[in-house]
Design a protein that fits this description.
By secondary structure, the chain is α+β, with helices and mostly antiparallel strands. It is about 40% helix and about 10% strand. It binds iron/sulfur cluster (2 copies). Its cofactor is [4Fe-4S] cluster.
Length: about 210
């Protein structure tokens, strides 16, 4: 109240309100420090700065300083070890656990490994695998349909980890493409064909990784 009365008196005299002045003083410790007002552009010191800046830029341009700085930087890297590769002719080394294109494997006698247990289908977080199965005449169970939708797959590798017979695996091959989404649905025949083609590589990678499991 006292501040408001003082403020009214001050306003009547044409002075700044006291209460507001006190508030601004008491809150000054918590408020950020205001930026100093810029000097008028026409001041003599700024004019000389601008003149020196212009002269410095002109000299740098005239003596090609930036060009030589760039050449020095390039020269520093000419004799260092290369850290870039000319893909696709050159490729980075791959871990035996690299997760690329899927494949279904067979036993050496040509029999499919998959026993249609559907663990891979159950564990797949992207629900990218579809399996249908039936019992054969010899009493074994095999898949009649095995599909992976690679447009859904996140290449987590859980299907490979869950498979009890090392049937579904992820190969080191990642250079494949498709023009339509339906071309990314890999059927059982396609997956078996990939497995047949790359069985030697798949087996070598499994053997290299076995001692760490
Ligand atoms: S890699 Fe992962 S997301 Fe892809 S099919 Fe296997 S479990 Fe599913
Ligand atoms: S691929 Fe492996 S986990 Fe999947 S259904 Fe066949 S045996 Fe089971």
């Amino acid at each position: 109240m006292e501040h408001l009365e003082l403020s009214a008196q001050a306003q009547a005299k044409g002075e700044p309100p006291v209460a507001l002045a006190k508030v601004s003083q008491s809150s000054s410790s918590s408020m950020p420090t205001p930026m100093p007002a810029p000097e008028p552009s026409g001041s003599p010191s700024c004019a000389s700065c601008a003149w020196w800046n212009t002269l410095w830029k002109s000299l740098r341009g005239f003596f090609l300083i930036e060009l030589f700085q760039g050449l020095i930087l390039t020269g520093k890297y000419v004799f260092r070890r290369k850290i870039t590769l000319e893909y696709p002719e050159e490729k980075t080394p791959q871990s035996p656990r690299f997760r690329g294109l899927h494949a279904l494997r067979r036993y050496p006698n040509g029999e499919e490994r998959c026993i249609a247990c559907k663990l891979c289908e159950a564990v797949c977080p992207a629900m990218a695998i579809r399996i249908e199965s039936e019992e054969r005449e010899d009493g074994t169970r095999r898949t009649t349909r095995y599909e992976i939708d690679l447009s859904k797959c996140i290449f987590c590798g859980l299907c490979e980890e869950s498979c009890p017979v090392d049937s579904i695996v992820e190969t080191p091959f990642f250079e494949y493409t498709a023009e339509r989404r339906d071309q990314l649905v890999f059927t059982k025949d396609m997956l078996l064909a990939i497995g047949d083609k790359y069985e030697r590589d798949i087996a070598a990678r499994k053997a290299a990784d076995a001692k760490y499991r």
